[in-house]
Amino acid sequence: MEANAQLAFDTVHQLPTKGIPHSVLNVMNHEHIERLAGREKGSYKKDPYGTYHAMQLAIGTCQIEQYIPDNPLSMGSHGYEGAAHAATQGVAEIWRDGMLIDSPEGAVEHLEKVEFPSLIERTKNYDIEARAAEIIEWEKDQQDQLGPTILKTGYGLFWFPVFFYNEYGYEHYFSAYALYPEAIAKHFRLQADLCLKNNQAAALAYKRANLPPMHLLDFDMADSRGTLVNVQSLDKIWFPEFSRCIEPALKQGVKLLWHCDGNLMQMVPRLIECGVKGFQGFQYECGMDYPAICQIKARDGSSLMIQAGSSVTRTLPHGKPNDVKKELDWLVQNGPPTGLFLGESSSMVPGVPWENLKTLIEGLEYYKNEGRK
């Protein structure tokens, strides 16, 4: 590992460091990517992987968990340009396995006829050894692509039960959640059975390949008002299954971080009680109390790990360069003593002024070299 990756590695292990590493910047504006990479206009579409990687190297990225160099291809200069094509994107009809999902009853029928039997069969036939080998090969390939200056950490390797709004649409799924809680509880339980098998394989891969012990868990369970469902219902049917299936990761010493979209304050103490050791993202404007969260201790009494960044919904698109600088200073001043990564709060869609992006990168470089003063 070279210096940037070593700084990230030490931070993952929550060792004292002089500098503060920064995570991937997933810039979605093609012109910004090309400018940062030192490439000519139009080069991103011609060579998305090479241009995106050149950008990460040029800005001094230290750590990447989700490496998605082709993700900005879904964007144009003014944002997303694709047609609606998914259950949560205004599609006229939702079909799954030849079944029309047009009601909560339709969602439950699909669960019972298709999803439940599939989960049972997949769990029964799950090959832990093959999955562990697949994970090791995947992470090795990703690290090889990134090179020695950027540390690859985990994303999508450890599984947990999720809401099925992407499959059935918000209206039908959450109506089913309210009207048929027994079916939803069974779905979480069967998902967790499969997730447990997968997570045993992932823990084995971490042990065999000595992978960096940090992993990001990512699924949107809140909006700006709070959790998408009553949090007490999650206490009954989701948190026990979540806790059960992440146990292999905890036993292996993998530090699980939770990606924050919306206002997750009600979930924060519950996730920590389950064993989550940190948080990433933060929509401060939605009520996420960053200073308070950074003061909370993990279940084992250690400081939380935090990946914090300049807001992609408020400061970067709508603020001034001085606002970006102030926000970075605030994140550092209120962050944990060890285990802090800086960056952006989520993907940076088109609309962020160049001067704000430039100020962010200058600030990240400053804190990487100088650390806390």
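the 2nd protein, sequnce then structure:
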Amino acid sequence: MSDIAVRVEGLGKKYLIGKQRHATIGERFRSIWAKSDHVDESEFWALKDVSFEIKKGEAVGIIGKNGAGKSTLLKVLSKITHPTTGRFEMEGRVSSLLEVGTGFHPELTGRENIFLNGTILGMSRSEIKSKFDEIVAFSGVEKFIDTPVKHYSSGMYVRLAFSVAAHLEPEILIIDEVLAVGDAEFQKKCLGKMDEVAKQGRTVIFVSHNIGAVRNLCSEGLLIEEGELSLKANVDNIISKYQNNFKIDRNQRVDFSSRIGKGDIRVNQIEIFDKKNKLTGKVYVGSDLEIKLGISIEEKVTYKSRVIVGIYDHIGVSCARFDSDVSGDSIDIVRDCSLKCQTQPIYLSPGNYSINIALYGNGVMQDYISNVVSLEVKNDDFFETGKFFEDNMTRIWLRNQWSIEDEVQG
């Protein structure tokens, strides 16, 4: 008897990106019957020649940048979409949670959807009933179990959907980043449940940008890059390669391309200084920062404003945050101006970071820019002990002093 739970061979998924050209309604109807419809389209391969095997009882984490093809791979394995090339085999019942709403009928109640999902998995009504109370208790939606799920919030939806997926005893459990919708306490419960499932000898496939969760839950990993399987190995090796792929922009270009917001007031310039000179994307451990933002205004009215600057590490984990509202600073913007934020020394571990900026005016998000500028924290003998901070040990270091208070009496 084979010990392979999932076998994937030469898997590829192609999408056609284009637009059909129909000048008139008549042409549109004629095109339905014609073989030679005019289409201007290009090919996009979300997955390219992916092959791997997963053994029964393994917990496998799949990581990669946004758009790498991770979610497409899970949709193929969950039979939500068909592969363009290649084949795959799954041994046993498969339960998956990929998107809010996947597998639930909006007009049915939570109770009815539990029985529907169990039936789809091939379980008998008595088997589902034996798990019913446990599913509802875990999800925490007891009060709404007889309410149509179309009235659920996204958080409630995910809580029940995960509970159903994890408790109906699938041989293979597939979970995507959708767990991020839930609150921190429920995410912790979910990770604990997935760990329990894995220890019961069932197979778990987990996609997440939470590298700590992947490391704690999974023993093996897959690294997906631009639709291709870059590496299948021990999860620590996978994470190490993934982290090493991040490169800082040493030219320190300011990137305003990925912004959202109403736009009545906007950030148009960013300058970062340390206590010695203007930064060019580098700062030493323990430096304090001075962040200057150039602000442009469309209409000369008073905007009671809030500014948030976030520093994120190379895998998107928030490491520091400066918030004018929390610090109690009043900012009234009435004209084009420059805003200055002065920080105390920051003890970020040596490494590469990016900066996000959010600007609110009169309670409305006016400008949000992600990865607007990069920052490299350099190592330094900050404590003047001849010893340096150890890379990758932690993200935050704190000043500390050790002493002996009392001698131990023998």
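Residues 247-252 have pLDDT under 50 and may be disordered. The longest strand covers residues 4-20.
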